[in-house]
Amino acid sequence: MAGMRPSGAVHLGHLVGVLTQWAKYSETADAFFEIADLHAYTTDFDDPAKIRGARDEMVAAWLAAGVDPQRSTIFLQSGVPEIGELQTLLAMIVPLSWLERVPTYKGQIEALGQKIATYGFLGYPLLQLCDIAIFRGEYVPVGRDQVAHLELGREIVRRFNHLYGDGETILVEPQPTLSEFPDVPGTDGRKMSKSYDNAIYIGDDEATTTEKVRGMLTDPQKIRRGDPGRPEICPLFALWRFVNPHKVDGIAAACRSGALGCVQDKTDFAEELNAYLRPVRERYAVYRDDPALVERIIADGTTRAREIAAGVLTDVKRAMKLL
Ligand code: TRP
Fold first, then answer.
1. Which residue in 65, 80, 60 sits closest to 25, CA to CA?
2. Which residue of 26, 95, 97, 221 has the lowest C-beta tally within 10 Å?
3. CB neighbours of residue 210 within 10 Å
4. How does 290-320 read in b/e, with b if 16+ C-beta sit within 10 Å?
5. Residue 137 maps to a domain
6. pLDDT score, position 53
7. What is the CATH classification number for the domain harbouring 242?
8. Residue with CA closest to ligand 1 atom 6
9. 208 and 310 co-located in one domain
10. pLDDT digits (tens, 9 = 90+) for 191-219
11. Do both 280 and 305 map to the same domain?
């Protein structure tokens, strides 16, 4: 089970860090992929149009990346009210102190301001646990920053089973599975992110991509061709790894010796990246231009998700003696 907030355009960092893994899961497992629109409201509650607008394009990018809607379930969080009901029930047994000590809570308030210090935002990791637990999700591919949420989720599940399970496992403890490529650098070397304005988007055209690659940061001590470079600190080199791992040894050697200059390296990489993205972009354009198809996929998945969620919610309510 995994989710993504519809909060902006999908970029290369999502593609190589998250979506390639989702695509693999979608073929081999009984997988659930959630449009976490309620989570988007925890920080962007004053911009519902942005959240609504990001939905279809985000799912178009998932499909373009190879997430298979036949074998897996793509669904809308707000379309599965069982998740919200589970949150109300579990809220009764989650100590406030557990939520307050999650690092993203204070960290995000420091970053985004008091505006987001709401009841809903405090409950963010509880809602996330409900997303997973309502399907008895076992494996959750997440980035490093989400591991603390999963840890809290496991504690909540343990407490629930202890209080109401009567020796049985009603809810399942989810486990994080870390991405092979957790942190993808952007053009300035910081983590690729819309908010840093350093991202290369699936929706960018090839000329824009080439322009962005030309502007990328490389080893600042390598001024001209001939100067020895340090691939280990170069964001451009880090991106090569994702896009063509077969070439990295040769590039590292040529950069270190000075034979390869950054200008040439950027030209080569822009070509390689555009070739890598081309099939994804072609599929993306097909889905983006057919929102009715995307919405049908979401609606079908949401119906399927609700059926499973309803069964688990019934088990939870029985365990709590509500039924
Ligand atoms: N919090 C996740 C993120 O920001 C998104 C998310 C919401 C999620 N619900 C989830 C991830 C359930 C995994 C499982 O990346």
1. 65
2. 97
3. 18
4. eeeebeebbeebbeebbebbeebbeebeebb
5. yes
6. 95
7. 1.10.240.10
8. 3
9. no
10. 998 889 999 999 999 999 999 999 999 99
11. no
Residue nearest to atom 13 of ligand 1 (CA): 2
Of all atoms in ligand 1, which is nearest to the CA of residue 77? 9
CA of 135 to the centre of ligand 1 (A): 14
Residues 169 and 87 in one domain: yes
Given a contact cutoff of 8 angstroms between Cβ atoms, the answer to whether 22 and 67 are in contact is yes
Pocket of ligand 1 (CB under 6 A): 1-5, 34, 36, 39, 128, 131-132, 140, 142, 146
* Sign (positive or negative) of CA dihedral 224, 205, 251, 267: negative
Which of 176-180, 202-206, 318-322 has the least mean pLDDT?
176-180
Give the whole-angstrom CA distance, residue 25 versus residue 55. 21
For a pocket test of ligand 1, which of 146, 156, 177 has the largest count of ligand atoms closer than 8 A to its C-beta? 146
C-alpha 2 – ligand 1 centre gap (Å): 6
Q: What is the pLDDT of residues 265-301, one digit of tens each?
A: 999 999 999 999 999 999 999 999 999 999 999 999 9
**Per-residue pLDDT reduced to its tens digit, 12-39:** 999 998 899 999 999 987 999 999 999 9
CA of 97 to the centre of ligand 1 (A): 21
Q: Are 104 and 246 in the same domain?
A: no
pTM score > 0.90 for this model?
yes
| The total number of structural domains that make up the chain | 2
Residues 76 and 128 in one domain: yes
Q: Which atom, in ligand 1's list, is nearest to the CA of 4? A: 5
Query: Is 196 contained in some domain?
Result: no
**CATH code where residue 6 lies:** 3.40.50.620
Pocket test for ligand 1, best of 7, 25, 128 (most atoms within 8 A of CB): 128
Q: Cα separation of 6 and 287, whole Å?
A: 16
Q: Which structural domain, as residue segments, surrounds residue 149?
A: 2-184+292-319
Q: Which two tokens mark 43?
A: 């920080």
Residue 13 resides in a domain: yes
Atom of ligand 1 nearest to the CA of 39: 7
Decide if pLDDT at 62 tops 90.
yes
Residue 195 domain flag: no
**What percent of the chain has a predicted confidence (pLDDT) above 90?**
91
Which numbered atom of ligand 1 lies nearest the CA of 131? 12
Q: Are residues 180 and 108 in the same domain?
A: yes
Taking the centre of ligand 1 as the mean of its atom positions, its distance from the CA of residue 203, in whole angstroms, is 23
Same domain membership, residue 279 and residue 153: no
Q: How far is the CA of 59 from the centre of ligand 1 (A)?
A: 15
Q: Are residues 92 and 167 in the same domain?
A: yes
